């Protein structure tokens, strides 16, 4: 049983013109093993900033608040330490990694996180099974990470990592964007498989309610202007589907 606790998190970014802009303005969230938390909100509300900040992206400066995983100070950890502590942040490796195949990348990541290399025979079987489940061609394993990946391939690669690395907490930012319905189903099934086998807590960031038809959230948080404006259960997503974000954006 693991708990990620975000308390009163404030984050700024440095703008190109040299000014400093506060993006997160006091975020509180608690995510426990096995729970799916949907964070939903309009574009520009700071959802990705939340994900990057938890991931430890250097562009984002935490100016207040705390993030802990089972009581350990996540903000004091390096990006690698965060992964070893059991946090999976899909955007952690968004870049091309020249000359590193998916297969080698996954095995290196697994070894780094577990502290020992996985047993070759079971590992090869696990990778093949996970790729089959995600309807990925076996040749994908020999491609270089993110090199010429389509949007859909990037998303499948994210979920493949999640299934094999078995994190305690998984943060998925717009995993649904750019997927057609068939790909969305396959990717969602992958997340659901991870939930039933490894029982991670999941922070599912999304602009649209569509993915929530396939991945059932336990909690829905409406994110507006750098903080959680409202929270509820799955019914809140249904309400958003009907009315959109307008009532949260209406001037007071
Ligand atoms: P969302 O994911 O909800 O669409 P973002 O977190 O991407 O929102 O962005 C929130 C706000 O922060 C936007 O106004 C965006 O322009 C700004 N922002 C995000 N990242 C940066 C950055 N690296 N540099 C400057 N501004 C940024
Ligand atoms: Mg955005
Ligand atoms: Mg975003």
Automatic annotation (TrEMBL):
Judging by the UniProt lineage, the source's domain of life is Bacteria
Residues covered by the ABC transporter domain: 4-250
Protein keywords: ATP-binding, Nucleotide-binding
Pfam families, from UniProt? ABC_tran
Which InterPro entries does the protein's record reference? AAA+_ATPase (IPR003593), ABC_transporter-like_ATP-bd (IPR003439), FeS-cluster_ATPase_SufC (IPR010230), P-loop_NTPase (IPR027417)
Record-level Gene Ontology MF annotations: ATP binding; ATP hydrolysis activity
Q: PROSITE patterns, per this entry?
A: ABC_TRANSPORTER_2
Keyword ATP-binding assigned: yes
Gene3D superfamilies per record: P-loop containing nucleotide triphosphate hydrolases (3.40.50.300)
Which family does this protein fall into?
A: Belongs to the ABC transporter superfamily. Ycf16 family.
Name it: Fe-S cluster assembly ATP-binding protein
Organism of this sequence: Kineococcus radiotolerans
């Amino acid at each position: 049983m693991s708990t990620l606790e975000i308390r009163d998190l404030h984050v700024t970014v440095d703008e190109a013109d040299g000014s400093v802009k506060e993006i997160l303005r006091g975020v509180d969230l608690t995510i426990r093993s096995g729970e799916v938390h949907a964070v939903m909100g309009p574009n520009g509300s700071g959802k990705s900033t939340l994900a990057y900040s938890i991931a430890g992206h250097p562009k984002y400066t935490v100016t207040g608040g705390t993030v802990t995983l089972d009581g350990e100070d996540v903000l004091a950890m390096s990006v690698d330490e965060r992964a070893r502590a059991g946090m999976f942040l899909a955007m952690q490796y968004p870049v091309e990694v020249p000359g590193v195949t998916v297969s080698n990348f996954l095995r290196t990541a697994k070894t780094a996180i577990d502290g020992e290399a996985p047993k070759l025979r079971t590992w090869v079987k696990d990778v093949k099974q996970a790729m089959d489940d995600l309807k990925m061609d076996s040749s994908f394993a020999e491609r270089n990470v993110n090199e010429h990946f389509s949007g859909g391939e990037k998303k499948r690669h994210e979920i493949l990592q999640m299934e094999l690395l078995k994190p305690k907490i998984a943060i998925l930012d717009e995993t649904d964007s750019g997927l057609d319905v068939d790909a969305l189903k396959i990717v969602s099934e992958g997340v659901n498989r991870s939930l039933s086998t490894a029982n991670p807590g999941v922070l599912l960031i999304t602009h649209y309610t569509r993915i929530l038809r396939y991945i059932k959230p336990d909690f829905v948080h409406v994110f507006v202007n750098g903080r959680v404006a409202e929270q509820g259960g799955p019914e809140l997503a249904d309400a958003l589907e009907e009315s959109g974000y307008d009532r949260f954006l209406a001037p007071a």
